[in-house]
Structures are given as structure tokens and as C-alpha cells.
Amino acid sequence: MATDIxxxxxxxSVSEATVAQWLKKKGESVxxxxxxxxxxxxxxxxxxxxxxxxxxxxxxxxxxxNVEVGAILGRIGEGDGKGAAPAKAAQKEEPKKQEADQAxxxxxxxxxxxxxKPAAAASxxxxxxxxxxxxxxxxxxxxxxxxxxxxxxxxxxxxKEDVQxxxxxxxxxxTAQAAKPAAESKPASAPAQDTGAREERVRMxxxxxxxxxxxxxxxxxxxxxxxFNEVDMGAVMDLRARYRDSFEKKHGVRLGFMSFxxxxxxxxxxxxxxxxxxxxxxxxxxxxxxxxxxxxxxxQGLVVPVLRDADRMGFAEIEKTITDxxxxxxxGKLSMEDMSGGTFTITNGGIFGSLLSTPILNPPQSxxxxxxxxQDRPMAVKGEVKVRPMMYLALSYDHRLIDGREAxxxxxxxxxxxxxxxxxxxxx
Length: 428
Description:
By secondary structure, the chain is α+β, with helices and mostly antiparallel strands.
């Protein structure tokens, strides 16, 4: 009796997914709980596992198809997996077939035992059809014979530089060079010919489309504004240097900058509750909990997993949770629960070298903090010019809810906590 492969519940407010990839082929054997197919939703990519052992007998939803919750993706039939043998045998035969195809083929008019001439010899009979459009145009305009031009490109292909040399009377020189060894006659700086397609069209993933929709929604709905400040990272860097080894030895995780900024942001959010609030209809919802989203660049796009109740976490727990969420984001293992319920977001463009940016809100949140690259800059410190490790901070916020005074004060508070990190430890 066949067992249906069904689209599982996808999470709150998500009713449709796209079949991203079948991990098994029709006729292959499957074991219980073995991943069969990947589904892509608006937020995450998830795997559908086999509920029974047997053979994948039917594939009803091909890759790229949109499916709803409860839809049948395929069926698992009874069997011991012998149906997969032909496919495996074909895979074994494929390398042999490729070797046979790659073996030198004897020309129809070639006598037995006669060796085939090198492919480069074909350049001796170059015609206009072998030229690129730009080279063909130059040859035609100058009334040149392509068969008398020595090409310096791959397999003797004529480049624009070869035509220009022939135009200036260098054809004889090129001919003389052709008698020299190939290593001498081919200029070391000759540009490689790009024979690939100039364009490639790839279907936008469901996650990428959803990211685009949400970002555009944020721009169209919120009255977005960004305010900036800069922070001296010297105190945090010194603290990390002093306790890096002992922290990692005790907690099994590295002490990063994100835990400092998470703690600093939570402390500032408690002082300025509007930055942690949201607008729902004609009401302002003030949230007395602090779920901080950490923007992560994953292969399938930008995702924002959430640190729940970050105000109750210590530095070690924050670092461990961020490390775990980042790893699962890269592996495509985040769940819907990991991505929902955030009240405030932190994004760090500095890991990619960004010096300054204006982050876009993550709806329905009202503010997002942007971290950037740490760069040494000359600063005035107590009347003296000193080189300090500085970072620009950016806070984008919804001006419908958050006034400029609150936004600027929030950044000032974060700056104060980062420049004097002991305050975070003493909660003062």
C-alpha cells in the first residue's frame, strides 16, 4: 500500500510553499525519516521526511511547483529499493561513456595508423565565420585577409590586438613569431576570450520575493528616517583581549561584539520603550519583552532569526545562541518559530566591510540598529589628537512612532554602554 508524501503545516500565516528540490529520484529506496524533498516558504527552507520505508514510486509535484498545506507531493510504494539499481548502474556507465567520448576520434579520410593533426592547425584555414563580431567588423573595414593574420588567442583565435598589429604592418612580425615556441609567441598579457553567455535568467526564489515585498512594504508604509553616531570601540576591544581565552575556555564559545551590542541595545530599549514598540492599526503596542532579531546573510537570502527574551541572557548565552542560529541559517535549518516574534533588529554590515549604511526596517518593528566596520581614525581626546578604533552606528526608525529626540537618545545610550562596557555588567 502506497504512503502519501504530504506538505506539512508551514507555520503561522503561511499556507503555500514551492518545491525547491527533490532529494530522492523516482525508483530510489527510502528509509523512515529520511529527507525526501525540500520546500521553500516565504521565510525558511524545510525538509519533508519519509513517514515510511519503501521506494519513491511517484513524484506528483515537480521542482518549481507551488503547493499548499496538505497537498500530496508524491508517494512511497512498497519495495526494497531494487528499482534504484538501474539508475546507479547508469551512473557507473556514465564515466566510461565520457571517457569514450573524450578519446581522440579518427577523421573519416584518415588512414589507419596516421596521427591526427593538432587542433591548432585548424587556425591555418581561418575564415570570417570563426571571428568574433568585433574582430569580423575590423577585418571587413580594413579589407584584410583573416587567413594571413596570426591569432594570439586560445587555439589560435584572432583577437582585436592581432588585427591592430596587422593594420600597423606587424603581420610579418607575427608570422615570424609563429615559428617560435608557443610559449614565446603567445603574449602573457593576452586577455582570455569570454565564450560564456552574456546573460543568465534565474527564477527568483520564494524567499527572495518575500524579502523584496517586505522591504518595499517598509518603505511604502513607514515614515523612515535614519540617525547616526559613532562609537569608540577601544574599551570593548581591550576587554575582549583580556578575557577572550578564559571566556572561551569556560563557555566553549568566542566572545564577540554582538553580545555587547545586544546587551547595550536592550538597556537602551528599556529606557526608551517607543523604540521597542509597534503600530497596529490606530494603536501603539508597547512591548515589555525584548526579542532581538540578528540579521544573518544565508545562501538563500537575508534572514533574521530572533533571540527571545534577550534581556534575560548573559553574554555567553547570547554568543551561543547567535552561533547556533547562524549555523542553522547557513544550513537552511531555521524553523518558522526561529524567525518570528522579533521586536527590534541589529544588523552588522561591518563584517562585509561596510563603513556606513542606512538599514531598512524589518516590519512590523519600528527600529533597526546598524553596526559597521571598525576603522582607525584620528580623534580629539581631551585636547589631543589620537588614533582610535571607531565605528559608525546607524538607527533607522519609523518617524510615525519614534521622535527624533528618542532616536538620538537611543544611539547616545548605546554609545555610552559600548564605550564603558563595565556599566553593562553592573547594570548602571
